[in-house]
Amino acid sequence: MASMGEQNGVVSTRPVMANNRNFADFEPAVKKPKRNKFAFACAILASLTSILLGYDIGVMSGAIIYIQEDLKINDVQKEILMGILNVYCLVGSCAAGRTSDWVGRRYTIVLAGAIFFLGALLMGFATSYAFLMVGRFVAGIGVGYALMIAPVYTAEVSPASSRGFLTSFPEVFINGGILLGYVSNYAFSKLPTDLGWRFMLGIGAIPSVLLAVGVLAMPESPRWLVMQGRLGEAKKVLDKTSDSIEEAQLRLSEIKEAAGIPQECTDDVVNVQKRSHGEGVWKELLLYPTPAVRHVLICGIGIHFFQQASGIDAVVLYSPTIFEKAGITSSDGKLLATVAVGFVKTITILIATFLLDRIGRRPLLLSSIIGMVASLTTLGFSLTIIDHSHEKIPWAIGLCITMVLAYVALFSIGMGPITWVYSSEIFPLRLRAQGASMGVAVNRVTSGVISMTFISLYEAISIGGAFFLFAGIATVATLFFYMFYPETQGKTLEEMEGLFGKFLGWREEAKKLKMKKTIEVNGDGTSNGQIQLGNTTTK
């Protein structure tokens, strides 16, 4: 048998028997590995923090109707109240990067839940507009912490084979939170005016308590552990969250390299530079960035800016107002139509989670933003017709409702989840926490500006004109994404930096990386050429 196996070009049992181990090792490249259940559970628990923002967005769209009636506030106070939480998020998201580097990703999530719990209680017991604004300030800090830390933790704990799927979970739970907020609006709308909106806002304290308790069952991020020199603990976490022992070893090796720890160092605890707590990172990000870091920063901030500047929060927060402009006048009708928006958003984001690691980030992002341009343009057209008509036009009303639903579906299938996936995976390890916090800061500021000026905007240029403006911004975003954004599907977090740095020349780098990986796979897999020989002779 041994001599038979040595003969070149002869189909025998030797290649099969001798290469069983090699074929098993090569199997993940041919057949997609099963989802890692432990990493899946960790991603769900971490991403639950995002439900806090979603719930607040959804519930405020309906609660504001009753708040305006109860507290007798004007339109300017109304739009400030609606959007100010996004500005308050800045405090939390800017502090979260340093906090997570100092105390760890896990305890930062617990802190986010505790702060939001306090904010929800303050809003629920508010007796005046000023009191309500204080509650929104506290809740905003909690949301800022949650938005920054959830995608970072999930990206760092996920294996490369399912990182897109798992890192999209924050956006899934934002959408789930929005739907819960819409349902809460409808459920409490029958209560007396002064009680209904307080229940709508105060009930948000419940998920934050469950979150803070559940997170304690999660492990710490392996990348954060390595940055603290706790290699033994990091190895245990990687063994649990990787698809194979070999992948766990590879991930540990790459993280050690990124952290500046020698590969031959195998102690459970080692000394690392103090900059692992975030010192010097801001200089590297903003003052003296390399071409690669500059490219990463522009892409990370750009995708967050365009996600919000294309008008998603205007549609989600002001959907009752949009439906009223479209001709739906009853409160129940507006709230039910809004629930439909939340339902469509949630269903499409769930579909998107399964496509991210199959189709890739770039195709989904481009198809999503192109569809958003078309739906925003059509929505602006239908609202303009309704606005200039003195009688109801059924087809225009139907087109308006359809385009709102189409817009949120197209957003949720690509632009929504990919923003969080992409921005959390492209930053190098040493810059990841602070880079992600900058992206969240831009995201929330842009959202705050849109949501705090939407009423004034459509009063100035008409509601149809507002959506034509959003369509124009989305068109610019399409060109920006097409030119500057490389595909990151299947790349390890430590490979990302090699794709960036040449802006328009990233395609050449992607080809080189693909060729290098092909050579490495052939070199490892053939082991004297036997795997390729086996595949060739059996066909």
Automatic annotation (TrEMBL):
Main location, first listed in the record: membrane
Which compartment or compartments is the protein found in?
Membrane
User: Which Gene3D superfamilies does the entry link to?
Assistant: MFS general substrate transporter like domains
Q: Which UniProt keywords apply?
A: Coiled coil, Membrane, Sugar transport, Symport, Transmembrane, Transmembrane helix, Transport
Q: How does it sit in the membrane?
A: Multi-pass membrane protein
Transmembrane stretches, start-end: 38-68, 80-97, 109-131, 137-153, 165-183, 195-218, 335-356, 363-383, 395-423, 461-485
Q: What is the protein name given in its UniProt record?
A: Major facilitator superfamily (MFS) profile domain-containing protein
Q: Supply the source organism's classification.
A: Eukaryota, Viridiplantae, Streptophyta, Embryophyta, Tracheophyta
